[in-house]
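quick one, 247 residues, struct below
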Amino acid sequence: MSNNPWAECFVKGEWIFETRFLIYSLGYCLLAYIGNTCQKSYFAEIKKDPKNAPDHRSFKAMIASRPTVIAATVHSVATSIISCGILITYYMQGTNKSWTTPGGINLLEVWQTVGLPISISYFLTDCYFYCLSRKDGLIFVHHIIMCLCHYPVVHNSGAVLSGAGNIEWVIWLSIIGYTSEVSTAVMNYRWYLINTLEENWIGFGITNTFVAASWAGRVVMFTYLLVMQIFPRKAEYVEQNQMLSYR
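---
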C-alpha cells in the first residue's frame, strides 16, 4: 500500500467511481447543452424581433440568464437528498446504529458509489462550462479543492489513509459536509421565485428565512467539524504520516 490516498483510490478502486463519473458527466454535459441552447434561442428571438421579446419570466428567459443553473440545481438537490437520507437512516436506528441497513444496504458505499460520483462529476464539468467561460477563478478553485478533498473517500483503500485509519469517520465527515448543499438548493428556489412571482406571497418570506437559517447553520456546522472533529485528530494523522490529508 502506498501512502497516497488519491493514488490508492485510483489504483484499487476497480473503476467503479470512474465509470459512474463518466456517466454522470455526460448527463451534466447534456444539461449544459440544454442551458446553452435556451440561451442562444432566447437572445436570437430578441434580436429578430425586439418589440415582441419573450416573457422575461418564462423558463427560457430564466435559463438564458443562468444557463448552468439546471446542472447546479440537479447537483445540489441530489447530493442534499442522498446525504441527508443517509444520515437520517443511520441516526433513526436508535442505540444499535449500523451503517448497514436491515435490508443489507451499506450506507457508506451508497455515498462512495453514488453521492460522490454525482458531485465530483458536476464540479469538474462546471469548471469547463461555467468557470472557464466566465473566467470565475474563485469558483474554479472551490471546485478543484472539493474534488481533491473528497476523491480519497470514494474507495476504502484511500479512505483508510485520508481518515488516519478511521474509514467510517472520514466518510461520515464527507457526508455531513454535503448537507450544506441544502442551502444551495433553497437559494436556487429563491432565485426562481424572484423571477416568477408577480405579487407578494408568504412562501417567499419563509424561503428567505430558510436561506438565512441554512447559511447560518453551515457556519455553525463547519466550525463544529473543524474544532471538535478534525483538529483533535491531528496526532492520529501525524502518527499515520498523513499530514497532507489532514491539511
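The mean pLDDT is 92.
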